[in-house]
Here is the input.
Amino acid sequence: MKKGKLIIVVLLIVMVLNGALLFAAGSKEASEAAEETKEASEAAAETTEKFKMAILLPGSRSDQSWNGGMYFAAIELNEQLENWQFTIIERTGWADLDPFVIEFARKGYNIVLGHSDAFEDSMQRLAPEYPDTFFLHSGDPEARGKNFMSYGPDQLYQAGYLAGILAAGISKNGKVGFIAGEEIPPMIASYNAFKRGARATKSNIETFSAYPGIWYDVTLGRETALAMMDKGVDVIMTHGDGMTLGIIQAASMDPDVFVVGYIIDQSFLSPDTIVASRIWDFKVIIEGVIDLYTKGTLGDEPKRWGIMENAVTLALNSRLADMVPQEIKDKIEKTEEDIKTGKLTIEYEPNPIP
Here is the structure.
């Protein structure tokens, strides 16, 4: 081979080797970059992993009150909160609740909320077995531990006082009533507050109460309301989930009888019958629970969500607002403001008063 050709061949070999080395280096850099991208993606996925909350409802959203209020609050927050995922189970009933509690604890849910005092026993027993899950129930506030607590008792009793002012202020017969599913402490407290609000407005007002013993029987709710109406009661405050629908049906038969609704603004159910609604905003409660959980302080002390926390209020039906005397509207507004600022305290009285 001639010397000139040899030099060319050597140069070609060097160029090929350099290209191979550059390719190998480039491949290594690409591989390292891909690995870094994969690690970054996994880190991002880990960062954006959602917290999970299970909402266990004893009844159905169709009650348009206790269960429906919590259901739609969770649905709304599921769309608004990027870092939280909500799973809702309806119709768990009130007995044999352990399987529901265990299922979501085993699945690693951060919070399991049982929307009834019926969950209290299961959660109190099972919470120690699942320390990484926080359990919430609506029962006795004293039933609490390291990772379980109550978000009750029902703070609607505060709005019961406001409803008493309203009922006494619009009753033509001077007779007002309260119907709840069972005669249990939170319901007694609501009736006591209702009584006190009514008496603070009209000292000679007569008050009546009835507890049919069941929450979801529409027919029984209607019959109970009709029996109360036969006594001359013309304003009824209700607290009874599906039973409330029957109470509204009964009252709607008489244009001179009015109902104070329950949990959500129920005026759409019967605009000419429901003069107002006692609202307990479960969205505020869930957001409050999440805030405490995120801070790591959930369960450190009992927590209530009432008027002071903007979770409870009395909402007048605008369609019937003209039938409410202005002085009564003013009294309701001032009383609610006094409660909110701490100037007035409505005591939680779980035992019957005269």
In short: The chain has two domains: 51-150, 156-280+307-341. Confidence is low (pLDDT under 50) at residues 1-34, 36-47.
